[in-house]
Specification:
The complex is a heterodimer. Chain A is α+β, with helices and mostly antiparallel strands. Chain A has 4 domains: 94 residues; 98 residues, 2-Layer Sandwich (Alpha-D-Glucose-1,6-Bisphosphate, Chain A, domain 4); 96 residues, no CATH class; 89 residues, no CATH class. Chain A contains 8 helices and 22 strands. In chain A, the strands form 5 sheets. Chain A has an 8-stranded antiparallel beta sheet. Chain A has a 5-stranded antiparallel beta sheet with strand order 1-22-21-3-2, covered by helices on one side. In chain A, strands 13-14-17-18 form a 4-stranded antiparallel beta sheet, with no helix packed on it. The relative contact order of chain A is 0.15. Chain B is an all-alpha fold. Helices cover 71% and strands 0% of the residues of chain B. In chain B, helix 1 packs antiparallel against helix 2, helix 6 runs antiparallel to helix 7 and helix 7 packs antiparallel against helix 8. Chains A and B meet through helix 2, strand 7, strand 10, strand 20 and helix 7 of A and helix 7 and helix 8 of B. Bound molecules: protoporphyrin IX containing FE. Protoporphyrin IX containing FE (HEM) sits at the interface of chains A and B.
Chain lengths: 452, 281
């Protein structure tokens, strides 16, 4: 052991006590962020908690606690703990694994799992014991002695490394998330059908940044179940570089598009004002109906000298007298004499304006649904490090929990006509399982002894 | 009879099994215990049939999907997994008193699923975000883990009761497994559960990454599953430190299961919701 391994600082960082403390502290403090909603509007916090608590909480970074210095510090502490602990123990484990010390009967004398039996003849017992041993452990080595023999078998030496794989996996997870937080980004972009986007808006800073390529939304569609619940959101996207099409692909929720390390996820959608809107104006006096094509911001003159009409805005989820009436155009009707009135034209209820009982009834005659697709755009170079960590963790846990380093030594001796067989087992875990193997081996030998 | 009908019968079958195990323990008779094993078998068969039928019914309704998509279905799956894992333990350790401390859980889970007015047993179509094979792996792994932790919880309670009786005076505790065995079994169940919880969290992260472009978002449900994971990781390491044996380990196991229950049911009470949390409605 090197001298630095005796220093108190090293011992502190290598100790399992520190692990227990840090893990429990992480568990306890993680609760806070689930009780205080994270990353909300600061005014809302002030309103909910009052001045004093608000100040205390913001000093402690409670409103974004999982990214606070003290929470990150706990994670760093855990990482140091794992790395140093492994540096402390891995060399010894590695030596056991790569340099088998070979068979020494003395190592088994204090074995925690033991069983002694007597048999009538060693010559008969030997093949039975050998077979039982090779079935429960593996390849058997035989060593003759003056009054009998040794049988020895070993397996799973390498499984001692499993736990280091688990610990390494935790380091991968933390490293991967760190890479993600430095070099990753998370943004969003809305693209109307038929249009192309190059800039995306970052979620945390609100800044716009350009991508290396352009995304065109060729089509967006949404399908519904009979119950009215949404069944599928689908966008057809084309990737363009320098104006040239690279490829076209559909994405749906759970099936994103990945290109040049950037991922495009279907995350939302919405309606846009139709570009081919035709309104009908019905004169109450004559009953005549006139159709006019109109675009937002444009004014049309209504025949019969009834005034003019202009579309002023398009609202998604328009509120009319406290009720939501969905997508709606809002227009301004200006009669030849008199004040202008606001006219609401919900897309879903084309003759809504009848209710107003004005001189002219405005209705939507032709419209088309036009969507924009809402994409989540992310890039995270750390994701593959994290995924490697995931695989290592699962593999390491399986090895650590369900496999072990097992050795059984059977010592058989004849002394004064008594043939005694001692079975001893050593394992680094699951002593109950080892005892069962020893008992099974003994039972096999006893059965034969009885048959004689 | 449709699947909900079969599953409500299964509730009573599990209840009956739990009753038999408790009776067998209290009255020190082995017959009710032996019968109980068969009753659990019957319950598990019904439970499995119910799940399979529900799967087929969802196809008949025209939006077929694995029956693991809402609170009702997860409770039913949880109960079945618990019963199955319990039967393996009983076979392996030949002790039926453990049944008295474990079989009430599948009964309670099924009773809650069938009787609670807040839980709908209607088969609903899947929302787009839930259409993922990762989700199925995620739910299956989590609930196998939860089942193991529930059994570890039962064993810990047994440990804490048994431990009080140092001199072995109590007649009721006579046939309890020894504290050493309970402790070892508790550890094994926790290891089993920890593996599946890890797989559950990991598949959940991969699913989140394919649906929303992030593998981890610190939302309350995710965070609580991580808290649970931290507690059981503490338990695994605490065993290595001197002085942390038996009793403290049993307490940690109880705390871990409390965190499991909170992850499962409690998170819905917190402000700001996991989209999946409202799935029972
Ligand atoms: C989240 C972080 C960690 C995880 C998931 C983890 C996981 C594990 C697992 C699964 C085992 C096997 C337990 C068993 O066999 O019952 C283990 C053992 C162990 N862990 Fe960790 N661990 C973590 C952190 C640490 C840290 C920080 C240390 C530093 C001291 C540490 C030291 C050990 C030791 C000494 C063992 C026993 C190894 C042996 O049996 O030879 N662990 N760990």
């Amino acid at each position: 052991m090197n001298s630095w391994q005796h220093s108190p600082i090293f011992k502190f960082f290598a100790s399992v006590q520190l692990t227990v403390t840090v893990l429990l502290t992480l568990a306890a403090t993680s609760v806070i962020g689930t009780v205080i909603p994270q990353n909300q509007n600061l005014d809302d916090y002030l309103h909910t908690y009052g001045q004093n608590l608000y100040r205390l909480f913001s000093v402690l970074d409670m409103f974004d606690m999982y990214h606070s210095w003290w929470f990150q510090l706990l994670l760093v502490l855990l990482t140091l703990n794992i790395i140093i602990c492994s540096m402390d123990r891995l060399p010894a484990a590695w030596k056991i694994v790569v340099k088998p010390p070979g068979f020494k009967p003395s190592r088994f004398l204090n074995a925690s799992c033991q069983r002694q039996i007597t048999v009538s003849s060693l010559d008969q017992a030997q093949p039975i014991l050998e077979k039982a041993l090779s079935r429960s452990i593996g390849q058997v080595r035989l060593e003759q002695t003056q009054h009998g023999f040794f049988l020895w078998s070993e397996k799973g030496r390498w499984t001692r490394l499993g736990v280091y794989v688990v610990h390494l996996s935790v380091v991968f997870l933390l490293a991967g998330s760190l890479i993600g937080s430095f070099w990753g980004f998370d943004g969003a972009v809305n693209i109307p059908e038929g249009e192309t986007a190059k800039m995306i808006r970052l979620n945390n800073s609100g800044k716009s940044i350009p991508l290396d390529f352009e995304i065109r939304c060729d089509k967006f569609s949404v399908s519904y179940y009979d119950s009215g619940a949404p069944s599928e959101y689908r966008s057809t996207l084309t990737i363009l570089e320098n104006g040239a099409q690279v490829f076209t692909r559909d994405i749906i929720v759970n099936d994103p598009l990945r290109y040049k390390g950037i991922n495009l996820f279907q995350s939302s959608f919405g309606n846009l004002p139709s570009q081919n809107l035709v309104l009908s104006f019905t004169s109450r006096a004559t009953g005549m109906e006139y159709k006019e094509k109109i675009a937002p911001g444009q004014t049309v003159t209504i025949p019969e000298g009834l005034g003019s009409f202009m579309i002023t805005e398009f609202n998604r989820d328009h509120q009319f007298k406290g009720h939501s009436i969905g997508d709606a155009f809002v227009g301004m009707m200006t009669p030849p004499n008199g004040d202008s009135v606001e006219v609401v034209l919900p897309v879903k209820f084309p003759s809504f304006d009848r209710m107003r009982k004005g001189d002219v009834i405005v209705a939507i005659s032709e419209t088309e649904t036009r969507y924009y697709t809402g994409l989540q755009v992310t890039g995270d170079p750390g994701v593959w490090v994290v995924y490697t960590g995931f695989l290592l963790m699962i593999a390491g846990c399986i090895v650590t929990f369900f496999m072990s380093h097992q050795q059984i030594c059977i010592e058989a001796n004849t002394a004064e006509k008594i043939c005694s067989v001692m079975i001893r087992g050593i394992t680094n875990k699951n002593k109950i399982g080892m005892q069962k193997k020893i008992d099974a081996t003994a039972t096999a030998a006893i059965k034969i002894a009885k048959q004689q | 009879m449709n699947s909900s009908g079969i599953l409500s019968v299964v509730t009573f079958v599990y209840g009956f099994a739990a009753f038999l195990y408790v009776a067998s323990w209290i009255f020190k008779k082995s017959e009710p215990g032996r019968l109980a094993t068969w009753v659990v078998f019957a319950g598990l068969t019904g439970n499995t049939t119910g799940i399979a039928m529900r799967w087929m019914e969802s196809y008949t309704l025209g939006y077929g999907h694995a029956p693991l998509s809402n609170l009702y279905e997860s409770l039913v799956f949880f109960a079945g997994t618990l019963a199955a894992v319990y039967l393996v333990i009983e076979k392996k350790y030949q002790n039926r008193i453990i049944g008295a401390f474990v079989m009430p859980f599948p009964f309670l889970a099924m009773a809650y699923a069938s009787l609670s007015p807040n839980i709908s047993d209607r088969i609903q179509p899947l929302l787009p975000a839930l259409k993922s094979n990762w989700l199925i792996a995620h739910v299956v792994a989590c609930f196998i883990g939860y089942a193991a932790f529930a059994i570890a919880f039962g064993l810990s309670i047994m440990y804490l009761i048994k431990e009080k009786d140092v001199h072995g005076n109590s007649v009721l505790l006579e046939r309890f497994p020894k504290t050493g065995v309970l402790d070892e079994l508790n550890h094994q169940m926790v290891m089993f559960g920890f593996l599946f919880l890890s797989v559950g969290i990991i598949t959940g992260a991969v699913w989140a990454n394919s649906a929303w472009g992030r593998y981890w978002g610190w939302d309350p449900k995710e965070t609580w599953s991580l808290i649970t994971w931290f507690i059981y990781a503490t338990l695994l390491h605490a065993r290595l430190t001197r002085g942390w044996h038996g009793r403290r380990i049993a307490f940690l196991s109880v705390a871990g299961f409390a965190a499991v229950m909170f992850t499962y049911f409690g998170v819905n009470l917190l402000p700001g919701l996991h989209s999946y949390g409202a799935m029972g409605q």
